[in-house]
């Protein structure tokens, strides 16, 4: 039997998913069902764009509920208790700069379920995170990215 995929995440990320799941199940699902009932009242369903849109949204909501339940059922909470303070790992925030003289960049390395690069959270599956994990403060590291190799210096590592 194939091994189930696990979803590494922080406690904060797990809580966020639980909150989203609760919202989807309690209010969003009921809201969509109400929209479907109203749209049915508009008559011929074959030419009813409101009905079609509500059914599409219902499909999305139900799919998202299944996805979140899967992630939560197979969540692996990150515990960095026995990792060196200056070692990069999932759940830690790292500041580095691309050499020779780029501006410093700061990212928190999280599981794919929590990744949001626009707020500085990158997936542990991303090329940059894969290149940084396991390295320590002060090291120079070569990272293979789709755009080519980049050399970085690790400036700070925080929990």
Describe this structure in words.
By secondary structure, this protein is α/β, with parallel strands linked by helices. It is 38% helix and 25% strand. It is built from 3 helices and 7 strands, in the order E-H-H-E-E-E-E-H-E-E. It has helices at residues 11-40, 49-73, 127-132, and strands at 7-9, 75-77, 93-98, 104-110, 121-123, 140-145, 148-158. The strands form 2 sheets. A 5-stranded mixed sheet has the order 5-4-3-7-6. Strand 3 (93-98) and strand 4 form a beta hairpin. Helix 1 (11-40) runs antiparallel to helix 2. The two termini are 36 Å apart.
Portion in strands: 15-25%
Mean pLDDT: 90
Give the overall silhouette: elongated
**Number of E-state strands:** 7
What topology, given as strand order, has the largest sheet? 5-4-3-7-6
The major β-sheet equals: 5 strands, mixed
Order of helices and strands: EHHEEEEHEE
Our count of helices gives 3
- Helix content estimate: 25-40%
Q: Catalogue the unreliable spans.
A: none
Question: What is the terminal separation in angstroms?
Answer: 36 Å
Q: Based on helices, strands and strand pairing, what is the structural class?
A: alpha/beta
What Rg is obtained from the alpha carbons, in whole angstroms? 21 Å
